[in-house]
Specification:
The complex is a heterodimer of chains A (292) and B (312).
Chain A (H helix, E strand, L loop, with lengths): L4 H9 L6 E2 L3 H9 L3 E2 L14 H6 L1 E2 L2 E2 L1 E14 L22 E4 L2 H11 L9 H13 L4 E5 L2 H10 L4 E5 L1 H9 L4 E4 L6 E10 L5 H11 L2 H11 L2 E2 L10 H7 L4 H6 L2 E2 L5 H16 L2
Parallel strand pairs in A: 6-7, 6-8, 10-12
Antiparallel strand pairs in A: 1-10, 2-10, 3-4, 5-8, 5-9, 5-10, 5-11
Chain B lengths: L1 H5 L4 H6 L12 H31 L15 H8 L1 H34 L5 H9 L6 H12 L4 H9 L13 H25 L3 H9 L4 H29 L3 H6 L7 H10 L4 H29 L8
Classes of the chains: A alpha+beta (292), B mainly alpha (312).
Amino acid sequence: VFGDDAEAFAKVQSGFKADIIHPCSSWWGLYVESGLVQPLDTTRLTAWEDIPEAFRKQSEINGQYYFVPWDWYYEALLVRSDLVPEMPTTLADLWDPMYAGHISLWDNGEVSFATAALAFGIDPFNTTPEQDQFVKEKLIELKPNLLTYWLDYTQAIELSSSGDAWIVASAWQDTYSVMVDEGYDVAYVEPEEGYLAGLCGYGIGTDNTNLDLTYEFLNAAIDPHSMANFTNEYWYGAANFAANEFIDDEAAELLRLDDFENVLLNTRFYQPLTAERRDQLSDLWNEVKAAP
Amino acid sequence: MSDEKSLNTPDAMKEERGGTVKKITGIPRKSQLALLVAPSFIWLIILLVLPLITMIGLSFQKSAFGVDSDVFTFASYINFWQNSAYQNLLMKSLWISLLVAVISIVLAYPVAYFLAFHAGDKQGLLLNIMIIPAWTSFLLRVLAWRLILGSNGLLNTFLMWLGVIQEPISGLFYSVNAVVITLVYIWIPFAALPIYVALLRIEPGLLEAASDLGARPWQGFFKVTLPLSIPGILASFLYVFIPTVGEYVTPALVGGPNGLMIGNIIWDQFMRGLDWPMGATLSLMVMLIVIIPLVIMARAAQQTGILGGKSE
């Protein structure tokens, strides 16, 4: 059990023996690099071919597949339509003084960096040091507009439902689904810059010897029915596209499954980060937060 | 002498324990002391000294994991000295703690004064009432302030109902002010206790003497009560100041983008950034900066005999 990806990595790295690990794509490289996961035998996965090539490709590191893509999500703007003076349409709108004191950003360096970079037309995954500096200044400039940083999904929901945060940035579909279920007047806005998106999946721990059971579990996890159920409940994306026919219209529309090829063109999935880059981003983020 | 007697056990028991030739009472006082201190000593070694040594080691590593963990470097310290963001945040944290400590003491002093001199029979009851909130989890009490300070919170709703304000005051929550208010609330009982104890120890005769000699009540307070309660005030200050410098939960929950403290960044370095060396360095810096004034203060206090120590 872990709170977030970083905590999980710290735990596994310092000796916790996990049979199966479920990190998100930007961490996959680090797990492989640190020798914490073993390559997959994709022939033992029944639904491997139903997972889109775009997803499978992300799990390929040094010519081998290491992770079974399982869930994916968009990061969009969760907006209280009843409270904002005007609907935001772009990420750059977050800097609009109109929203001063009513925006909540995720307390996550990697994500906030990507969001700010994208807002100012910079490729978040390939920056120069000057661009890093620029993004950092922009994030500091954003502070007067912020209500607070949100730490987890529960807090994001609370901030939005209390009406204190008009816009919750980097919100996943599950947050939106809870707000809709609770009857709040919310919108899930795809920024004009395109979605940032993440993909998560299962990897098998290096010391796992019980592979028969492990593959049985993985096959059950990516089974179309169980995946469709997962999507219908939480509005997360299912990596197994064979599940799509069982997905409710509402969820399918939100995820834009019918138009997925086009969505992919305009969506940036988080790329694997090296340990060094992760350090840089975390330092940058800490300096933003420490700035007066 | 009586405490030595109480250690006296029957011979049979002594035999069972491996037959010490000497009677237990015969153990020299120094060994008795060692025996008594041993559990807390071991506790401190395992939970304080060893982790501290680990932290110091960690702060000189290049990375916490992988091959880089064997590389010895001053990089984290250099990073700290070159990075004004960390230094400013540390100064801000110290400032917040100072503010909290001073406000807590100012607010706690009258409470303690009342308890010690005017509560009479009700002393015990009132003391308990003061401490009862501390039985609730720290976290819950911080969360409760969200209900009070939020833009739809109790305070704003109340003020709007009274007609004092038309729009909710938004600066109350998610700000440095919220952090200070919450922390002061939490620490008042802890600040009051040492002052209360110090006030109890004041001989009533001294105040009577003061008034006999023609001092007005306020003069009596400033010339007698206050100076004699200084040890309590200092203890309160340390009680409040030290834990709040490293405070993490409160700023994270009510601090907003500008109310963060150094503890939040340290947590971040360990849990999110996975930059354990930097986290360790920052922690040690905080300790160092807190310890130096403490040592100076303690020394000054000892020399002036203010802490009740023998000054001759």
